[in-house]
Each structure stands twice: as structure tokens, then as C-alpha cells.
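job 3f2a | input accepted
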Amino acid sequence: MTMNLTTDTAAGSERVAVIGGGSWGTALAGRLAANGNDTVLWAYEPELVTEITTCHTNTAYLPGIALPPALTCTGNLEEAVAGRSILLLVTPVQVMRGVLKQLAPHISSQAIIANASKGIELETLQTVSQTCGELLGDAALARYVALSGPTFAREVAQELPSLIVAASRDLTAAQRIQAAFSCPCLRVYTNSDVIGVELGGAVKNVIAIAAGICDGLGFGHNARAALITRGLAEMNRLGQAMGAQAATFAGLAGMGDLVLTCTGDLSRNRTVGFKLGQGMKLADILAEMRMVAEGVKSAESVYQLALRLGVDMPIVEKTYQILHEGKPAREAVIELMARDLKAEE
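job 3f2a | predicted structure (345 res):
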């Protein structure tokens, strides 16, 4: 059965370019178009551009979803961003720098730069906002909006009730993103803690892999609940070291997204961990996946960032060792349980 994204003609009036034709980019582009925004989606694959343009579907990444006919698609970056009031980035974080370099000469000087991808760049250990500031300048960074929260792309596309947060130092920019996306099935909250929202999105993917490993090993609900709770503590510690607000991690971009990604069957990162826990090799797991599990790369970047800042993140450390140093999963969990006894913090 194909589901249709319904149109709310009373909603938005922005001219939006969505950069990235994966499941999340397509779901967000469809929502923006259904809300009445003039929306163009940029996709890398020529066959995907053709399918979205002619059939209004994306069977590779969002099968069974009928996209709004008003949504257009292009494979030309310059064409996508020209004259757009909002630029929404939804490409994998590890290729974001290259995409931004291509986009930079064509972005309107007044455009809001928003990002819905989650992760930390491995080469520089920068968040996306930091990369945007470096490549696009302080004026663009001042209007930057981080979009995050407990949202599986398929459920957003199916118009199931979902909540997200739009974080910016510029309240007006956050409110414009809020207005463009909001509808009866998608509620958007504003927030001023950009770095906290970005870190929540990056760290939760790593913890989700760890949660999947525990489930794959058959360690039960107690272990998963404890891992989520202690993972939140690690997220908070890293956030505090980088000037984030503790309240952010108790909200949608912290605990909300963490719980969803650690427990939901649609979570790609949890799936990677589950298969690792069952004994599959990482290379074989990734070879089976078309979509990117950001937590695999983020495990290394978050681990390296924690080392740089002197932040204790034992779950992240063990997940990194399992993914990138070949440590047996069961051995890593035993080492976590055998750590020195201490007070909860």
C-alpha cells in the first residue's frame, strides 16, 4: 500500500532546498512540500532524480510512500540552492564538507542554513555548525539551525505523530524552521542550544550501536535500560565540556532521541549493533545496508573528541574498540561491568 503525504495549504511559504535524497531528506522534503513550501530536493543518484520527478516516489529509501507532486527534484546543486530562503542539509556528515564547498558560491547571503544530519566529522572532530562557520562565515553561522529529535524517517513520512527541535542562536531563524515544518502530525519546538542538540544527535547513534550489541548478545531489558541511562550520562559529560546546556539532554534531542534509537526496530545503528552481538563481521553488516549508519564513524569521532577533552566515556570507548579494533563484544561488556565501583554521577 502506498501512503500519501497530505497537503496543508495554510502552512509554509518558504523557498527550501533539501540537500540529500536518502530516507530522512526525502521525508523532510515531502513534509515541507506538503505544508505548502516551494521545495526542491537534491539527490546524487540520477535514477533517483528521475523517479522522484516522474513517479513521485523514492522506492530505494522510502518504499510505499507517495510524495507530493509539488516536490521537485534535481541533480544540480547550483540549481537546487539558487534563490532559496532555507537550505536544509541532510547528507551524511562525513561528506558534508565537500558538499558545502560546492554549495558555498551559490547560497543566498540571507539564507538560513539548517542541518538534519547527525554526527561529528572524523577528520576535524567538528560538529556541522562548526564546519558551516568555517566554510560559510560567521553571518551564516549566526542563522544556523540544528534540527534533531526522536524521529524515524518512515514514521514522519507516514504522518505518525512526531516531535522535533529546531535549535539556533537566532530565535527568528528557529521560528521560521518551526513554521515551515509544523503541521498536525509534526510538532516543532525551538531551542537555543545548538551544540547540545548536535552532540545529542551524534552520541546517541554510538550508544544505539552499544544497545544493539547488548540485545544481540541476549543480555536482556535490564542491561539495555542501564546502558541507555549511563549513555545519557556520557552524553551529558561531553556536552558540559563543550558548553552545552544540561537541560538539552533531558529533552527531545537528548533522552528522546536516545530512547528511540536504542529501542526502535527501524534504527539502523541499533541494527548494526544487534548483528555484531550475534557474531556478524562489521564489513558484512555494512555491505548489506544501502543507507548509512552514522554511528559507525561517529564512534571513532566521538571517542577521539572525548580523548581530546579529557571526558570519561566508557560506553563510547568500548563501542569504538568493538567497531574499529576488533574487540569481542562480550569481552567489552564484561570489562564495563568490572570497572571500579563508584558513586552514580
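job 3f2a | The radius of gyration is 19 Å.
job 3f2a | closed
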